[in-house]
Amino acid sequence: MFGIPSSFYPDPVFTQIGSEYYAKGANAVSWYSALPNCHRIGAELISISKIEMLYDIQKHRNRTSNGTKYWVDLSDLATKGDYVSISTGWKPTFVHWYS
């Protein structure tokens, strides 16, 4: 079975939201700064693959951070309007995150 091993104890900088762990920086930064900031702590930008993940993130955000916005792992840097994942290079399968 896949998932988070029972022996996994996350660094305090990470917060569990649903079945995933996320880190939030202390200050608002651009997407260009957020990407290397994530990599420095061994993380990636948010990759939302299903509606349940989106709802979990939205509920947490609304409960704890007054509507803070988060950067996602998609970019159209190579071809404008053609979004791909920065970590995989694949086109997204779920794009209902945009508001």
From TrEMBL:
What CDD domains would the database entry show? CLECT
The identity of this protein, by name, is Uncharacterized protein
**Species this protein is from:** Drosophila mojavensis (Fruit fly)
